[in-house]
């Protein structure tokens, strides 16, 4: 697997075509995933091809440098940056600067190649909080102070098998020009002081617990230029009373005469021919650009309104990547699962699709329900932020024999009232998951059995 650096999830048709050409030669193992960090991963690559692959990545402006292990992962931003009529700030300049800093302008930055553990960062640019700031180690939240634009700072959000925590305020504000110095100071504090013992207790929040928020803040402050760090601003720009928008389908951009079109990528999995088609569509209908979202979907920006009708008739949109997905498919997310990941306990992507299709046949729902699947407790599928989450585990069937199963989580929320979900039922055998989902949807999400709905209509 090759994981890339793709700040803000912005990619091009040329990059997409190149990645398609790479995976095409690996047969059934060759595929690509859109990830929950707004990124591409390509699969099936053999080690002997890596030197040529690295040259090819560089030729299209991509790199895999410092993208895995105990490094800073892909900087996340608003997938609608620069085109959203309601955006607070264009996050692309900030996420690009962060990526350039972290990787030493893509030449390598030895200062941050050996952190105590992996580390996530995002820059928020929308009231919708598409960036999921509450689950990042460092999140920049737009806020003004004395007429200056900048960001309040959240720190410490993370998931792990041992513990999951939401990010907390650092009581700090930085001007827009100080996004990189603040990131540097936080990373240096974590690098220098973070525990390197038990890897289940080495994420940054453990250090914040050890020092206390004010103690951690003082360590960040002393590493800032001139040893200064302003207190948080009360002038936050993110509106708390804001209904999160659906980016699927056609939406007008801030640029007159242009629209963006959100496409559903089922559980984020693509084949080479589908990537080639997406690249063609980006060129033919837009400006050769694609946007990736943390929910594993893709947005085609900059579509001339005169071309919208033809775009919506494209076979790829009609048959595979719908701009109007079924209501329960909209929020479906799944990690790689044991098809390709050695840590996953269960298969996730095909199972997530199968269960959702079965549930759709059994019940009718009137609002989207976000369902996330993850193959193991590392929770790359982020089950704790889902309305309903499924974490792979071993269970026992009715005869007491070991079988694949899931721990079921319920109640995760995203947005301004973010909240991590809690265990609903442990070790549910895989064959029983559909029934449990139906039970939850009826009892907590207002779903109605289709047979009952049909009889009422009759």
From TrEMBL:
Keyword Metal-binding: yes
PANTHER family the record matches: FERREDOXIN--NITRITE REDUCTASE, CHLOROPLASTIC (PTHR32439)
UniProt-listed GO biological process terms: nitrate assimilation
Protein's UniProt name: Ferredoxin--nitrite reductase, chloroplastic
Family under the similarity heading: Belongs to the nitrite and sulfite reductase 4Fe-4S domain family.
InterPro entries: NIR_SIR_4Fe-4S, NiRdtase/SiRdtase_haem-b_fer, Nit/Sulf_reduc_fer-like_dom_sf, NO2/SO3_Rdtase_4Fe4S_dom, NO2/SO3_Rdtase_4Fe4S_sf, NO2/SO3_Rdtase_FeS/sirohaem_BS
A GO MF label: metal ion binding
Signal peptide (UniProt feature, chain positions): none
All copies of domain Nitrite/Sulfite reductase ferredoxin-like, residue ranges: 1-60, 251-315
Pfam families: NIR_SIR (PF01077), NIR_SIR_ferr (PF03460)
Reaction catalyzed: 6 oxidized [2Fe-2S]-[ferredoxin] + NH4(+) + 2 H2O = nitrite + 6 reduced [2Fe-2S]-[ferredoxin] + 8 H(+)
Cofactor(s) required, per the database record: [4Fe-4S] cluster; siroheme
Taxonomy, superkingdom: Eukaryota
Pathway stated in the Swiss-Prot or TrEMBL entry: Nitrogen metabolism; nitrate reduction (assimilation)
Keywords: 4Fe-4S, Heme, Iron, Iron-sulfur, Metal-binding, Nitrate assimilation, Oxidoreductase
Residue ranges of domain Nitrite/sulphite reductase 4Fe-4S in the record: 69-224, 332-441
EC number: 1.7.7.1
